[in-house]
Design goal:
By secondary structure, the protein is mainly alpha-helical. It contains four helices and three strands. The longest helix is centred in the middle third of the chain and has 20 residues.
C-alpha cells in the first residue's frame, strides 16, 4: 500500500485512511444524504480507494499523488452516488 501522499505543493505526508473517509463524508453531507446512506457511501468508496492504492504493492512505489487519490475517489463516487461527486466538484470549483 502507498505509505506517503505527495501533496500539490510537493510536500509529503503519511497516507491516512481517515482523511479519505472524512473527505467522502463531508461531500456526502453536502449532498444532503441521510446518515445511513453517508455511512454506506463512505464504506464503499473508501474500501475501493484503499484497495486501489494497495494494488501498487507489486511495484516499488510507496508514494501516491493526492491528485491520484482524488481521481480515484471521484471515479468511485460517480459509480456509487453521483450526487456526492457533484457536491465534491462544486466545492472544489468554489475554492
Amino acid at each position: 500500500m502507498a505509505t506517503q501522499v505527495i501533496k500539490k505543493d510537493g510536500s509529503k505526508q503519511p497516507f491516512d485512511v481517515e482523511k479519505i473517509k472524512r473527505a467522502i463524508e463531508g461531500a456526502a453531507r453536502e449532498a444532503g444524504l441521510p446518515e445511513e446512506r453517508i455511512s454506506q457511501v463512505v464504506r464503499e468508496v473508501s474500501e475501493a480507494v484503499i484497495s486501489q492504492t494497495g494494488a501498487r504493492d507489486d511495484s516499488s512505489e510507496k508514494e501516491i499523488a493526492s491528485s491520484e487519490i482524488k481521481a480515484m475517489i471521484l471515479n468511485e463516487l460517480d459509480r456509487v452516488d453521483p450526487s456526492v461527486s457533484a457536491a465534491w466538484r462544486t466545492y472544489e470549483a468554489s475554492k
